[in-house]
Amino acid sequence: MFVLASKSKARAAMLAGAGIRTELVAADIDERALDETWSAAGFGPAEVARLLAETKAKTVSLQMPGRIVIGADQTLALGTQRFSKPATVAAARAQLLSFRGRIHHLHSAVALARDGELTFATVTSATMHVRKFSDGFLEAYLADMGDEVLKSVGCYQFEGLGIQLFDRVEGDYFTILGMPLLPLLAALRKQDLVPS
Known about the structure:
The protein has 196 residues and is α/β, with parallel strands linked by helices. It has one domain: Alpha-Beta Complex (Maf protein). The protein is 38% helix and 26% strand. The protein is built from seven helices and seven strands. Strands 1, 2, 3, 4, 5, 6 and 7 form a seven-stranded mixed sheet that branches. Strand 1 (2-4), helix 1 and strand 2 form a beta-alpha-beta unit. Helix 2 crosses helix 3. The longest helix is centred in the N-terminal third of the chain and has 19 residues, at 45-63. The chain is globular.
């Protein structure tokens, strides 16, 4: 059984759907502080996602000797503006309004580590074209979503009601959900960790 360095039920479900059994162990790191430090140092959103995924995997793997640990993270950028998970529904409303009629990018990263050593890392990106939704749609969406809107950086679950926010998307489905699953599965096969 692998270890997923996360509390993300969506990522665990993705892995389970692919036949990868995991134990969830959240990494004890300050993601926001690391994100701010790396961003201030000039790292772009895709690089920050990769660094966070690597840090999660390495941190948890040091606590669990001999275990293969999967770390994953996702960042969102609208032009040069970066976004984090909103703290309140009002913040989610403002964030969604800033996305309306515009294009943002999701950068999803995944990493593998054992005993503090990184064995694989990659990042993939998706381009998200948000439609010019009405104010009425937005209010109904927020009411339907409730606190779920606070659980993702984009204020949406693409596999649910969030799909209604978009005109078009470019990129891999799993990247949008928060983890580049196909490259991860290829890496697991290459390392003889799952049957090839």
